[in-house]
Amino acid sequence: MALKRMLENWSRLRQQDYYAEEPYMWGMAIDLNKCIGCGACVTACYAENNLPVVGKERCGSGHSMHWMRIERYWTEPEGTPEIEQEEASDFPERGAHYLPMMCQQCNHAPCEPVCPVAATYHSPDGLNTQVYNRCVGSRYCANNCPYKVRYFNFFEFWKDLPHPLEMQLNPDLSVRDKGVMEKCTFCVQRIRAAKDAAEDAGHPEHVEDGTLMTACQQGCPTQAIVFGNLKDPESKVKKSWASHQVELDRYEQDKSEDVRGYRVLEELNTESCVMYLDRVRDTEA
Amino acid sequence: MSENKSSSNWTRRSFIKAMGLGGAAGSALVLSGCGDTDIINEVDIEVRKEKVEPNVDPQDYVRPGIEMYYASTCRQCPAGCGVHARIREGRVLKLEGNPVSDVNHGRLCPMGQAGLQSHYNPDRLTKPMLRKGGKLVEISWDEAEDVLRKNLGRKNAKLAWLSGATSGHHRALVDAYLAAAGAKNHFVFDTLPPAVGHAANQEMFGSYMPRLDFDKARLIVSFGADFLGTWMSPVQFSTQYAEFRNAPRGTLVQIEPKMTLTGANADRWIPARPGTEGHLALALASLLVQKSEYADRVPADVVASLKDVNVDEVAKLCDIPVERIHHLHHLMTDRSPSLVLSGASAEGVQHGFETARAILMLNVLLGNVGETILPRSEDPFPALAPRMGGWSEVKAMVDGLNKGSFDTVVVFGSNPLYQAPGFMQADKAFDKAKFRISFSMFPDETTMACDLVLPVHSYLEEWNTTMPAYAATDGYLGLQQPVMNPVFGSHATRSFGDLMLDVLKHMDPNFKQWDSYQAYVMGALWTMRPALVKQYKPSVPGQTEEEAFKQGILSDGFVQMKVAKAAKIEAKVSAVTLPAEKANANYPFRLIPSARLGLWDGRHANVPWLQELPDQLTEVVWDSWIEIHPKTAEKLGVITGDVVQVESSAGKAKVKVVVFPGIHPDAVAIPLGQGHTEYGRYAKGVGVNPFSILAALFDGKTGELATYATDVKVAKIESRGKLVTLANGDLVLESNTSTQAGRELVKTTTAENFDLTEKGA
Amino acid sequence: MKDIEWARINKDVLASLESPRAAFWIVLAVCIALVLCGVAAEVYQYKHGLGVALMDKPHYWQLYISNFVFWIGMSHSGTLLSAILLLTKADWRKPIYRFAEAMTLFSILTAAIFPVIHLGRVWYMYWVLPYPNQHTIWPNFRSPLLWDAAAITTYALSSILFLYVGMIPDLAICRDNAKGWRKKLYTALSVGWMGRATEWMAFRKTYVLIACFLVPLAVSVHSIVASDFAMSIMPDWHITSFPPYFVAGALYSGCAAIITLFVMLRYIFKFEAYMTTEIMDKTAKLTFAIAMVWNFLNLGEYASIWYSNDMFEKEVLIQKFIGPYAPVVWGMLLCAMVAPFAMAFEKFRHNMWAMFWLSLVLQLGMWLERFQIVSPPLASNHEPWTWAVVWPGTVQLTLTAASFGWFTMLFLIFCKIFPSVSMYEVKEMVFHRRHASSRDEMEDIGKIKDEVMRSEGGLA
Amino acid sequence: MNSYANWAILMDNFLFALYMPLAAIFWCAVLHLVNGKWRYEVRFLMSSATALFPLGFVLLLIILASGAKSFPWMGGDTFGEPLNGWHNIIFFDLRQIGLFLAVWAFCSYFVKLQKQEYPTADPVARRKFRNVALLVPFIYCIYGTIMSWDFEMTQIPRWWSPIYGPYHFESMMRVFLAFFIIALFFLRKRNLLKRPTHDYVFNYCAQIMLALTIIWTYAFFMQYLIMWYGDLPFEIERFHKMMDGPNWFLFWAFFLMNSFIPFLMLIFSAIRHSPALMLFPAFSILMGTFLERYMWIISPHADDIDHTPFFSSWEDIAITAGVFLVGCFLWNRRMKKDGLYGTDEEVMERRHAEA
């Protein structure tokens, strides 16, 4: 049985464009011109996804579980024209560089092939899915993730939750036990609910753009995050990708220099579903 | 299992839902894992026809498996954002911004998100306590109410009432009570609302907070106003900021000694030497008045007073290249309209009021008044208007206590024993009162020093109204309603409104008509309805008008009151003179007690999410630290993680170093929020409290504490300890600050290019 | 060697099985104590989660994996000496291959522990095996970890087989000389070996066949271990030379371990007559050659990274040499790259104790090598934000120490139950040498025809 | 000579002209170090290949003079990334010429010492020779690595593979043996040699070739597997260009000719022991390696050019034939000079005896 199933799967896997018929491909666009680095998305993610608070000591030993984190850098990357190199200053006069970083939902994810038990796989709608129940905790996926956005349950964090804080836990998704890997899901529970709602409303293949928001997007005070269906030509996120000339299945974009869209570490061929838009600074100021 | 399931409809998904394992995604994750290999889902979990009905009729709130949203108002800071609370099975699970609210447009800051953890906090007080024999012992509510009535239910001129920033019906109720009790001493103390700035605004523009039009401005020059982080209404300003940054993109220049969140997003961040912002503003003014089109906007004596300003000297004083000042001047003249803001670091000095005036004067010179600075209309119900308070009020109260003017003190929503500076010795003064009452959710420092402790509901459990500290539209009144039953039950905590109403009923018969605070608030709103912009009509047959009204306002989450058209804004400018800054040889560094979005002034230190939310600039979590510029650090011989002793004339503190480029070399910054000696398991004993070492310096005009004026010295006492930061790179790299190491993680483009390309997009 | 009497061989070797000295018991007790500490550490870790081992983001792997690579590496030289030298008919392997093979087996058994305790959910470790189940779930055949599981299992089983088959004639000798429980044990294990010619012929064929199978298997096993790293896209893990580099490194540390045990056994069991300076010389030369291959691949890796100018790889390389892990890297270079040059000198090679200490230095170097393969690249990965330095905590160190205790314990017990020197092969060697020495010389001269050519052709 | 492909053929020929003497010296040294007795039969024959050094040097100069035609990165085409110091034209030319001359000199020295080394020679001379022989593997590996990187790996400057050096020089070790036994076969056939060699020489060479074939396959496959698995575009693209480009059949041809064909033949001892049958695997390896070098050199341009050596250009044939003829001439002359050929009378006599 199992062998037969495997052979069937194999032959289907070999088909080209296996997911071409799938109506959804979830994607995101994050505008670094607008992101102010406040951390609303981070807290929203904690609330939505039952992320454990690990405490000072465990933060100190690198065990924090923020699926969404905001990276702050001080320097421009090499080769950035005109900015910052204009003068040698003792101060970050152009402010900080904030980068909200979460699972990029790579379509060509380095984490997927290395899992010995296939606990992480790609869903047809473009999510890089982590199956907690199947995970044995080899942590290879986290090593192979260039963005380092996979988080491992080093402890039984849920045990530390004193009453009544556990009442806040979102019943739409589980709490994770020790020894499994977890990461941003693009709020898959909301996606599921939205798909269900769309089906109930009589259009099973179409989730209205804007009705579905990830928690980080919803909280963002500057609306720097746009989330939606990349296969829907009318969606905001698709329009943003198109206007910034970023295509999903490429590792080198064929785009004009001035357009702001880019994907982090795109050259690693991860085909990530998160597009960033350049941070902007007024060089005349 | 209920019987109304035909087996054909009984899919695995609905089965799991019925088993109570939770909803969509949880089961999707579970099922796709164990049902199949990663490629084919033959088991049809996508087909969904679910109709799960429970056997037992649940309570009102509870519709198993179905989520509901209740509109309410956030009380995590005085900004008063509208929230939607997501409820399932009678529990609030998540707070979202209320999309129709004019304050936050559906957005919510980290503190607002984390309101849940204040609400569900394990350290919440659940039993009234009375001090007996020097110790607080738990008592019954009956006893507590007796004690409360005995102490408050009488005329008492020697009663002092201390609130945090207050507004709406809480304020009205407290004021009504104080009137009934014949007490005049209502102090309001909140640390972050800019009292000095309000006073300066009041004097110049006739309103403590005129409306600001960020979107219209092409240039914002902010002297330390952290409007994205801690200034008045951060979410509201952030939404406006987002508009401001759309093409054509506005430019933000931030001038402050320590980089704030706003500074981190500025196009040009200028580290002025602390305390010199006023001089810089005057220098800019003096450059502007050289042209008559600017000079004509202010009286001649003001222009004359600016003649003496020497820009080169100011540049030296501010430690800014003089070209930068000229450049800023050109920027201001080139980009109009602009908006000049004054904030905490500029105002928190001994000449803060003057500094704020000097800064605001630039708005007048640049002609921003009426363009980006807009008038505000009179509040239709002044009794509900926000009262922000300030340091002068807490000082007055402490002075009064020391003099023995008060025998009874009531504290609600404020924590002076933590927030008042150490030199005031608020705790000793507090001891002098005969009877101290605290209405509080948490065992904070002040509460634990009181004689009667009354645990109150969280803002998600009670009825109330709130007027935001700053709203883009006038006449906005936020409504609060309980979004769930009290977490610990009604026997454990009580609504502050109910308690006070109860007391008040015995003193003022007018209040007997309302059974509860809910009835009081809703009754008040019902009587206010002619004054509201929106009218609510019954939509369902059989619904009374009152029901329709109540349902309408509760689903909106706020009401909009009609306001008179605002008068034209007139600026009143007079000459500003600033004293020269003098260096303090014993204490070479200026201490900046910086606030941040997150822990705020320390009130959120007991919220684990916020403790674990890294500081936006240093990325430190769960700790206090001192920010020191790399140059200064080199001079002091310290690296990130070292422990130093910070000493001011008022005290000393031990704290870990973070070498931080975004600070003036003459300044050191210790963030607010930590150093609690009480306040539950998450806050107690974490870090240090910079309030405790502030020196006794006050703004000359307003009497506000000059929080940014304390001078300190810093000495290393221990080598590298464990500093807990999420920016691991900071600890690894020699530079102490993580770089992108050549990767193009954050790419940057120019505003010029942005404007060119985004117009098409 | 020429002086060994036939009778003495049995006597000497069998003597090593009897009445251990006090030192033996002390060492054994220490080893058991270490193992117990390890068990305690593992129980603690099991109970609280892997966090107590002080791994973190981004160091999701650390000492457990380093140790795994170290021990699996050590297991390679037993096979090399035994199988390759058997196939190439180098007879100097004979006195030392038995304990080398035992070492192989026990280091595999040690290595196999580490992936298990490394797992977040140990209790589901069988999920990496392809077994039929009602969920019709297969493991992910694309994962190098799965290849690992398969390779190690195969290698462990083959190694046991190789060791056991090669020991049968000796077990028969033991059987003939033993009493009590030993008699029963050896009788069972020697499967009725009588030493008939047909038995010998079958034995030879089987033995060579297993050896032929083992050589590529050993290479593939360590190549697969290397692929755990090389298949990833992590800078400084994604290195095409890792498979041969790991194989060379494995042989290298294994040879060093052989030298260590060589000297110890020689000293403890008084095997001076068997484990001669000449054999040590050959072993040392072999080790030297392997060390040079390892060096070449190591330096080639550095050079090619530098040559490529690849940003990510270069960053790791720079961090390796000047970053927080620099002491480890420099320690490795000193111990494993510079130290082996001592073996270029004959005097050094012939000094047993010098070789003993050198072998320990080499092993330390190779252990550090494994550490620096795993940790520094994780520390300076693609995402500078997450760069962090983590040194292994007590739990990891305890388990590391326990692994040494476990290995030594197994080895000590083995030495007392089974002959650690192959009696029959030493006899063969003595026989061959005695009878063949004169004939070899004749052959040599017969083959030397250059001289003839020289005289004829007038090459000057 | 406009097409890049022509220059690639020239480089291909250069590498063969270089490695024939170099690998010959390597084998002489290794056989000496491992005390292979049969070395006495072949060592002078092998080492006479040093006659090809002048040819290699001339080709090197031509290639260096051609500049960007041989090395695209010299034309400023740096693929958008800054190059490191090695990619510096002057440094490149200097090290190529300098290293070549140094290696040439060393090999000549080795040959000189080898002539003085025989079992009954002065122990001091023997030791000296042994020490020099010890150096040879080091020099071979290091110089081979440099050559592989400079001429093949960095045809795409930032494409890198640490195993590339061993993969390259290992391949060239093997092709020398292949070439050598072909040459030996024909020399024997024509009875030219002063002292005939035994058949077992073919078997020994074949055994080594078998081992090297396995190692070649291992190295090639591992390099490919790691790049394929990692799937980093910059790495795997090069393979894709070779495999899917216009000359894809050459890629598969060299892969088969270098791995399966020789392996499947050399595992049979009957073939190993038959000099005539050994011609098949030897030719396979010779052609396979020639194509292999060509494909690696040409790979960055594989989708730009549509050039198949020998089929689409007479220049390729001319160049290769010319190099081959000059090489034969030089080698032949050296063997004569070294007295490896029998005198005419001897040869005639033996031919006569055979007939």
From TrEMBL, chain A:
Keywords: 4Fe-4S, Iron, Iron-sulfur, Metal-binding. It comes from the Bacteria. Residues 26-56 form the 4Fe-4S ferredoxin-type domain. The keyword 4Fe-4S applies. One of its GO terms (molecular function) is metal ion binding. Gene3D superfamilies: 3.30.70.20. It holds the Pfam family Fer4_7. The keyword Lyase does not apply. PANTHER family: PROTEIN NRFC, PROTEIN NRFC HOMOLOG. This is 4Fe-4S ferredoxin, iron-sulfur binding protein. It comes from Mariprofundus ferrooxydans PV-1.
From TrEMBL, chain B:
It comes from the Bacteria. Gene3D superfamilies: 2.40.40.20, 3.40.50.740, ADC-like domains, Dimethylsulfoxide Reductase, domain 2, Formate dehydrogenase/DMSO reductase. This is Molybdopterin oxidoreductase Fe4S4 region. InterPro entries: Asp_de-COase-like_dom_sf, MoPterin_dinucl-bd_dom, Mopterin_OxRdtase, Mopterin_OxRdtase_4Fe-4S_dom, Prok_Mopterin_Oxidored. The lineage of its organism: Bacteria, Pseudomonadati, Pseudomonadota, Candidatius Mariprofundia, Mariprofundales. Residues 67-123 form the 4Fe-4S Mo/W bis-MGD-type domain. It holds the Pfam family Molydop_binding. The keyword Iron-sulfur applies. The keyword 4Fe-4S applies.
UniProtKB/TrEMBL annotation, chain C:
It comes from Mariprofundus ferrooxydans PV-1. Keywords: Membrane, Transmembrane, Transmembrane helix. The chain crosses the membrane at residues 21-41, 61-87, 99-124, 144-165, 206-225, 245-265, 286-307, 327-345, 352-368, 388-414. This is Polysulphide reductase, NrfD.
TrEMBL record, chain D:
This is Polysulphide reductase, NrfD. The keyword Membrane applies. The chain crosses the membrane at residues 14-34, 46-68, 88-111, 132-151, 171-187, 208-229, 249-271, 278-298, 310-331. Keywords: Membrane, Transmembrane, Transmembrane helix. The keyword Methyltransferase does not apply.
